[in-house]
C-alpha cells in the first residue's frame, strides 16, 4: 500500500484534503471554491479553536478530485496559500507514523527551519500546529532551551514559513514571545 488511502477513502474515492484555510472559513466557502471541478458529495470541515482549519471534500467522480488538486493546490485564498492533495493516512488511524508512542513524526526532509523563542512548556505538537500554517510539516521537535526545529515536505513551504511566520506570536496553551525563524536548508544543486 502506498499510504495514500485509508478505510474512509482516499485517492480512489474522490476525497481530497484541503489545508491552510483561513480561520473564518465556512462550508459554503469551500463549496464555492470547488464546485467548478465537479459534483461535490460531502464537505467535512475541521475548525477547532486555535488551530489552522482544514477540510475533506469528496467528489462524486474521483477524476474531479484530481482536477481540483491540480487547480487549487497552492492557490492564494485571502492571506492563505491552500494545500490541496489526496489525504494521507498510515496504518488505518491517520497521520504520519510516529517515532514512539508520544514522539515526534519520524519522516524527515532537508527543508528545515530553526525556531527560537518557544515558551518552556511548548510541545512539538504545538510547534507543528503553529508552523503548519505555511504548509505540510513532516517533522517537528522542541528543546528545553526554547529552540525547536521544523521540517517541511516542500522547499516552497519552508520559504513561505520563513516569510509568513517569522516574528509571529506562538499560539499554545501558554502565550509565548515572538518566534524567530532561520532556514537550515543547504541547496546542494549548485
TrEMBL record:
Coiled coil, from the record: none
InterPro entries assigned: Nucleotide-bd_a/b_plait_sf (IPR012677), RBD_domain_sf (IPR035979), RRM_dom (IPR000504), RRT5_SRSF_SR (IPR050374), SRSF9_RRM1 (IPR034503)
One GO molecular-function entry: mRNA binding
Record key words, sorted: Isopeptide bond, mRNA processing, mRNA splicing, Nucleus, Phosphoprotein, Repeat, Repressor, RNA-binding, Ubl conjugation
Domain of life: Eukaryota
UniProt-listed GO biological process terms: mRNA processing; RNA splicing
GO cellular component: cytoplasm; nucleus
Domain RRM: 14-89, 111-190
Subcellular location: Nucleus
The keyword 4Fe-4S is assigned to this record: no
Family: Belongs to the splicing factor SR family.
Function: Plays a role in constitutive splicing and can modulate the selection of alternative splice sites. Represses the splicing of MAPT/Tau exon 10.
UniProt protein name: Serine/arginine-rich splicing factor 9
The species this protein was found in: Eschrichtius robustus (California gray whale)
